[in-house]
Amino acid sequence: MKALPCFAIPKSFFKILALSAMLFFMPGGTTLCTAQTVKVTVSGVVNDSHKKALPFVNVVVKTEKEAVFVTGTVTNEEGRFKLTDLSPGSYILEVSFIGYTSRTVPLFVGTLSDYLDIPAVELEESVTALNEVIVTAAKPDDNTEKMDKKSYAVKDNISQAGGSVLQAMQNLPGITVQDGKVQLRGNEKVTVLVDGKQTAMTGFGGQSGLDNIPSSAIEKIEIINNPSARYDANGNAGIINIIYKKNKQQGFNGKVGFTTGLGALWERHENLPSIRPQYQATPKINPSVSLNYRKNNINAFFQGDYLYTHTLNKNEFVTRTYNDGTVINQQTKRNRNTGFLTLKAGTDWNIDDRNTLTVSGLFSSEKIIDRGDEPFFNADLTERHRLWQFLEDELKTTAMFSGTYQHKFKEAGHLLNIGLHYTFHREDEKYFFDNIMPDFTGKDAFKLLSDEHVTDFTADYIRPLKYGRIEGGLKFRRREIPTNMQFFPGVNSPLDVNAGGWATYKETIPALYGNYIFENKKLEAEIGLRLEYVNLQYDVNPEHNTYTSNGYNYTQPFPNVRFAYKINTRNKLSFFYNRRVDRPNEIDIRIFPKYDDAEIIKVGNPDLRPQFTNTLELGYKNNWKSGSFYTALYHRFANGTITRIASTVPGSNLIYNIFQNVNKSYNTGIESVISQEVTQWLKFNLNANFYENQIDAFTVTNKYPVTHTFSAEKQQQFSGNTKLNTIFNLPKDFDLQLTTTYLLPDIIPQGKIESRFSVDMGIKKSIQKGKGELFLNASDLFSTLVIKKEIQGDGFNYTSRDYYETQVIRLGYNYKF
Hints:
Blueprint: H1 12-24, E1 40-48, E2 58-63, E3 69-74, E4 80-86, E5 89-96, E6 103-109, E7 115-117, E8 121-123, E9 150-153, H2 165-169, E10 175-178, E11 181-184, E12 190-194, E13 218-224, E14 238-244, E15 251-263, E16 282-295, E17 298-322, E18 327-350, E19 355-377, E20 384-408, E21 415-436, E22 441-465, E23 468-488, E24 501-519, E25 523-540, E26 550-566, E27 571-582, H3 586-589, E28 600-603, E29 611-624, E30 627-639, E31 642-647, E32 655-661, E33 665-679, E34 682-695, E35 698-702, E36 708-712, E37 715-730, E38 734-743, E39 746-748, E40 751-753, E41 756-767, E42 772-779, E43 787-792, E44 796-802, E45 808-816
Parallel strand pairs: 1-7, 1-8, 12-14, 28-32
Antiparallel strand pairs: 1-4, 2-3, 2-5, 5-6, 9-13, 10-11, 13-14, 15-16, 15-45, 16-17, 17-18, 17-44, 18-19, 19-20, 20-21, 21-22, 22-23, 23-24, 24-25, 25-26, 26-27, 27-29, 29-30, 30-33, 31-32, 33-34, 34-37, 35-36, 37-38, 38-41, 39-40, 40-43, 41-42, 42-45, 43-44
């Protein structure tokens, strides 16, 4: 195991520290559905002095100071009791039974565990009978949240209702979206889960497909900045967990909805000459249905969504300048048609009070048709060098099966969960090109077929304690992806036909973890360790002209530590540390060149190795009656940073984008969230994140298409973003949401991306006695969101402006029954 890198804090840390002081004294803000009040179940057993269980014993809970009754129960035939829906606070547990001396036990209920199991309470025999005991609870803190995650209900995100999951995420505190990828605190190394599991729909370790999952199918989104050991170690920026809707009410119930809309409302930038028109007034259609039936010990559920859209997916204008003085003006315009069907169904079978079996399946089909134009002109647009027109026909099919068994022990919250999950995912891509040159026209094509098979077996054990819980478990994953690329060259084809063929990705990962959570009146703690073994094998077509078979394996520990000190009931300090990894995705090491751009060729690198990252965070939380303030200083440092390198080879103006492990990188920043309910009709949430990204100087060797060396100087950029969500609860059941986002300039591989600004707005009205809902929203209201980049390559530089579709207006209706 390699030694951890030195904890070097850059100068920007002190700039960020000064900003934190400014943020601390800012006026208060709002919530976009922040953490909800925790409700805890407390269980235990009552015995006599001979360790024999006592049935029908009175157990009551009182507040610690006022001795006011909160709740009570009696023990069952086995001497066990369970007290539900207790709010966090300090209590007294009183246990009494005729013929025995009553006992008083102090009871502390925290926010870290949903279940607590106190040690056995023993009663001594007595001739004195007890009077009835009354128990009372302390007033709950209305703004409590767990250490590990923040949850946001999608239904409260009015300004992006009816869109995709990716669009809904853009309004959440701490999340930004860049080039279709989700970022947490300026870092795109995010693991996206669906119902707590990695899936092919969102990419194993990646984020593919998020822009096509309808938000109407989603119940809530969880953000986990500092994952514990029970989560996979992949994804150093953190985890986003997407929770699908699932109802468990008695009888037959459900929800139906329909959303329609228009995007690309006007032409934001005129096309270069001689190409097909860009999409305008693009339609959006999203019907959805959610059904549930529960009777006796059976609960059956179904979720169906269809998202059909036309989108101006990309409209980028690029000026490339080479060292020899050559200037090329280029436009990449992509008109996209998408149809995405998702069907999810399953059954919960409560075999008895302690055993439950859940079987579920998910099927999705995503059809994408891209029609694109890429003209290439000289500096003054008087001469067209080339027109590259393409048709991409892509079908993605996903089928998932999940079976989980849960055994509940006698103590509430004492669980054993066993799961078996299988995913099949097929990518069937066909590209057709018209390569129109001044003196000839070539017709080229290629076909890519990739089948992904993933099997996961998991076992998790949870044991509540008096002051927390212990967790432990194991996971075994087997993943195999055979891929085949076929080229069909035309006249004077630019395709590298010798780089085609087949490759097979094989991944085996067994892992063990243990976690201990403790909480009392003053302290919170979580200490965990995950041990993972990874064996990756990548078999490559021996006739490939550049790459050979490759792979790697390692056994590594991934610890996590969290401590918090409660200064008082409203102020808390916290400290976090974890170690995580970013394993290259299969597409990152894929050996086949991709020609979705005629002169910027993307290709993977099977020599890529994992990137290991350590994260430190110091946080402070303050709650008051109508709001809260949270701020965190964080520092990440990574070895073997994975990034794309854009370079040229002698004798060619083609740019090759290839993934490489470069040097160390650092991400240091401060994130603050101020939430405030100003009045009954106004609340808002202000999220600010300022950070400095740094990548040390490096030199790497690219093998494709020929061996060449690339060097880059140290990159350093102070950046950040702010996000303000304001919610107005208006008369006559109207709700209005206004979201404002501003992103500062930031570094990207070999360059920077300029600042961006947007405003989203949405309004909804409750109708039909609360069962119906109408909403209208608009994204990028003032059409200010343009992606501007500057890239400095080896032998060239380029600037770009992407006027892709950002303005969308949606109208929708939902009905619950």
